[in-house]
From TrEMBL:
Annotated ranges, domain Nitroreductase: 8-180
An annotated Gene Ontology molecular function: oxidoreductase activity
UniProt-listed InterPro entries: Nitroreductase, Nitroreductase-like
Organism, as annotated: Paenibacillus contaminans
Entry protein name: Nitroreductase family protein
Family, per entry: Belongs to the nitroreductase family.
Length: 204
């Protein structure tokens, strides 16, 4: 699908066809596309918890204040932020060096820089939220391009989600994206403010 058309047609779907399905291969392909999202230092501060089994979706539904869309969607992806993404600094430095972006002699400097930059827990969390949000948007566009509707959700109990799915301490739920077949006919995108209303050039 052409990009502008994709952006115009993506809407938040509240009603999914309970009979709709998504294959493991389709879901993995969509998640693969989501990993192309940008992140600071390419640390990729995200992890995806894909929930497809009926009983697991019901458990997630309960943690999300019983919103029906989670049960009816073919899959629900909990997009997690990774607080310890900076621990991949060595892998990132190796890749940059191998591809000619970073001289071999500067690898240790980069690794130390990243560990120092992310020594603050607030920075870890803020960057994880940003990166996970980029990934979630990319996930939704990829799903739409493959013919699936989506809905981003922040209405859930993070602690309940953590406990229900035994999420490791270094990961935390940022948002949930439901994916499935839209039940309604295609609808127009909701109101958007004009560029003039939302843009200021060169300062206020």
């Amino acid at each position: 699908m052409e990009l502008n058309q994709l952006l115009e047609q993506r809407i938040s779907v509240n009603n999914f066809d309970p009979a709709g399905q998504i294959s493991r291969e389709q879901l993995e392909s969509i998640i693969q596309a989501a990993t192309s999202a940008p992140s600071a230092y390419n640390l990729q501060h995200w992890h995806f918890l894909a929930v497809t089994d009926k009983d697991r979706k019901l458990a997630l539904k309960q943690a999300a204040y019983n919103q029906q869309k989670i049960e009816d969607a073919a899959a629900a992806v909990v997009v997690l932020g990774d607080l310890k993404a900076f621990e991949k600094a060595g892998l990132i430095a190796d890749d940059l060096s191998a591809k000619g972006y970073l001289p071999e002699a500067y690898k240790d400097n980069l690794i130390n820089t990243l560990h120092n930059a992310y020594s603050n827990e607030s920075t870890q969390r803020e960057e994880a939220i940003r990166a996970a949000s980029f990934a979630a948007m990319t996930l939704m566009l990829a799903a739409k391009n493959d013919g699936f509707g989506t809905c981003p959700m922040t209405g859930f109990d993070p602690q309940a989600v953590r406990e229900t799915f035994n999420i490791p301490a270094h990961l935390f739920p940022v948002l949930i994206v439901t994916i499935g077949q839209e039940l309604e006919e295609t609808r127009p995108q909701k109101f958007r403010q004009s560029v003039e209303q939302v843009t200021t050039f060169n300062g206020f």
